[in-house]
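Appendix B. Chain record.
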Amino acid sequence: MPFTDALSWIPTWAWCLVIIAILLYLYGVWPYLTTPISLPGPKPTPFVGNLLEMNAKGILDTDAAHVKTYGRCHVTWIGRRPLINIADPDIVKQICIKEFPKFVNRPVLVPLSPVQNAMVSVLKDDHWKFVRSILSPAFSSGKMRKMVPLIQICLDRLTENLTELSKSGKSFEVKSVMGGLSMEVIGAVGFGIETDVQKDLNDRFLTMAKRVFEENALTKIPVMMSLFFPFLKPIFQALDMTADSKDVTDFFATLLNKTISERRQQPSARKDLLQLILDSSVDDLQETLTDKDVDVNALKMDKLDRNKKLTDTEVVAQAFVFLLAGFDTTAAALSFFAYNLAVNPECQEKLIQEIDDSLQGAAPTYDNVMTLPYLEMCLSETQRLYPAVRGTSREASEPMTINGVYIPTDSTVILMNYILQHDEAYWPDPKKFDPERWSPEQKAARNPYVYFPFGIGPRNCVGTRLAQMEAKMAVVSVLQKFRFVRGPETEVPLKLKKGNFIQAENGVWLRVQSRD
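Structure tokens predicted for this chain:
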């Protein structure tokens, strides 16, 4: 009996299911078999890649295990997309500095709303260069000085809150308190509005901001489907099925559009970030910045209207990215800073002495906090131990080989700053909080490409200077009146969450004692 006759009893619909199953399986494994990447790495699971392992172990532990097993350069998979993970400082330098024109863009793997698609953090090529050219002058040292009075008002409210907490003698979750400060600064500087969220934790401005970070985009069907079936991404975007929550985006967009409309008609004398962006043009870049601030040459474009300004949608998008990049990360950084001082009281006392000797009780400003070397050392060491994210990403615009590592076109490169900043080869006893690592002698002797908490090269975080100024002013303002101390709830060492953002799993619980 012929083989085909033996199978003739199987109905047509069953054959269709078998064929569909085979095609679906081939679709799920095809990139793993055909992508021309020869780097070692863990075996991917069809469709999901290595997401299951990352979710089970946590990204930080998974990264550490992979570097130990597969080396400083290895490949992992997010769905069907390869990630080339780099923990080699020489390759980091090549990608971010020498070969930057080939790695200008960041990958965008999920559908985003029109506002989020206009953010400087996700823009590509000349559009990114144009918006970055507008934003960079607003973050110059001269412009930072103009924002100091707005931040000082927020710091006054912080010290009022800490006074009450010190009187109670109870432990408090530091990030929630610092989150109120961070949100007020963003409101005052980025959105041009005054809020009092440090007194009212149920304030709608703060509540909506928290939702941006508390809602996990990976639980949303359009996001997951876009990772596994990338061709669906433009369809989801067209249907407005995106990673963000529409009501949250609409809330901030409505708020900003009203302020922008008013200021277009009547520019404000208020020197906040929003007004500086509205006033800026590309032509301000060369006049305002030095090469130390940003590589101006990296922002050059072939065709450029020197007097062009941002559209309202682009302005809204930059304020929104300021919220995304500045709210939770600044609150987390301040909570980690406070934790390091509380569990290392000898460092705290040395910092207090420096502040007292230098400022003599004066309020913190841009200029006087920048004259405190030990403060800079403590902040750098905190950001080494607890950067905002585990790595920064780039996308290759063309195929190339760097130090023997082949990187195909459109592949995603992850520069593993958390791994490098905890690498024993560069940081003896890497888990220890040791500000002396940042003495001029030790800093000069160390490879500069093993530390980049704000990214590195022309596409680093545009708001780095503002974030550091805010953090320094906050710490100085607090330590002029209080000390951070451990409480019975203080977890030592801190357990970190499993996700991409570096956060304390159980919060940072401390007490404050009045220096009086």
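Further analysis of this model is presented in Appendix C.
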